[in-house]
């Protein structure tokens, strides 16, 4: 079994669906109006179309796996992810509301990717993404996140076209221990072996990949 198939099998075993049967119409209401019980409209930071805001550190949600998105809301609520904005919103959403909002964003069409990074940085990022650095036990990112970083279900999200600033911030979060919601602590082990230049390079490379 190759690594991509192994990652997909692991995802299926570890993660039960959270957004199955969700209501995208109800999700649109949450996205545009909030829930009236403490959860602000998602569009405030992520936009109605789910494009996010690179400068503000708000990720693209459009086209992401619905179960992955719903799981992130749950993890913010339960403290496995930390963010001063997202945690109170997650705590104010019910599981059903989170699933509905996730399904709405999953159904949106992602926009075009960012421009290509500098040549040396692109080469370093592509090398880590496609080959890894096995001398330091760093597997290729594509081993779990799929060809081109398009994602594999709820466990391994799509990285292609995501804002580079957000990807880099998450790698730093795993590295310093402020994020701890990855299957079997896989990402923590990877992030700890990357230096700052490598983090910036691989984040910039994935930001340019087609979704």
Provide tags for this entry.
211 residues; mainly alpha; Cytochrome Bc1 Complex, Chain D, domain 2; 2 domains; 0% strand
Describe the structure.
- By secondary structure, the protein is mainly α.
- It has two domains: 24-107, Cytochrome Bc1 Complex, Chain D, domain 2; 120-208, Cytochrome Bc1 Complex, Chain D, domain 2 (Orthogonal Bundle).
- The protein contains eleven helices and no strands.
- The chain has helices at residues 3-14, 24-33, 43-46, 66-78, 86-92, 95-106, 119-130, 142-145, 164-176, 186-191, 196-207.
- The model has no long low-confidence stretch (mean pLDDT 90).
- GO terms for molecular function: electron transfer activity; heme binding; iron ion binding.
- Keywords: Heme, Iron, Metal-binding, Signal.
- It comes from Thioalbus denitrificans.
- Heme c 1 binds at residues 42, 45-46, 86.
Q: State the CATH class of the largest domain.
A: Mainly Alpha
Number of domains: 2
| Average predicted local confidence, pLDDT | 90
Which overall shape is indicated by the principal axes computed on the Cα atoms?
A: globular
Count the strands?
0
Which series of helices and strands comes N to C? HHHHHHHHHHH
The major pleated sheet works out as: none
Protein name: Cytochrome c553
Binding site for heme c 2: 141, 144-145, 187
Organism: Thioalbus denitrificans
Binding site for heme c 1: 42, 45-46, 86
């Amino acid at each position: 079994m190759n690594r991509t198939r192994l990652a997909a099998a692991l995802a299926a075993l570890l993660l039960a669906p959270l957004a199955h049967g969700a209501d995208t119409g109800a999700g649109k209401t949450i996205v545009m109006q909030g829930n009236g019980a403490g959860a602000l409209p998602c569009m405030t930071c992520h936009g109605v179309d789910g494009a996010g805001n690179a400068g503000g550190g708000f990720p693209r949600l459009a086209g992401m796996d619905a179960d992955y998105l719903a799981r992130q809301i749950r993890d913010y609520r339960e403290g496995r992810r930390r963010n001063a904005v997202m945690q109170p919103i997650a705590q104010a959403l019910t599981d059903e509301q989170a699933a509905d909002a996730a399904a709405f964003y999953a159904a949106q069409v992602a926009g075009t990717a960012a421009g290509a990074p500098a040549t040396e940085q692109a080469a370093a990022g592509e090398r880590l993404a496609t080959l890894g650095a096995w001398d330091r036990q760093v597997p290729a990112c594509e081993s779990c996140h799929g060809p081109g970083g398009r994602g594999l279900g709820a466990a391994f999200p799509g990285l292609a076209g995501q804002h580079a600033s957000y990807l880099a911030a998450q790698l730093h979060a795993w590295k310093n221990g402020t994020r701890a919601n990855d299957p079997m602590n896989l990402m923590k082990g990877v992030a700890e072996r990357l230096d700052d230049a490598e983090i910036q390079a691989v984040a910039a490379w994935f930001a340019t990949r087609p979704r």
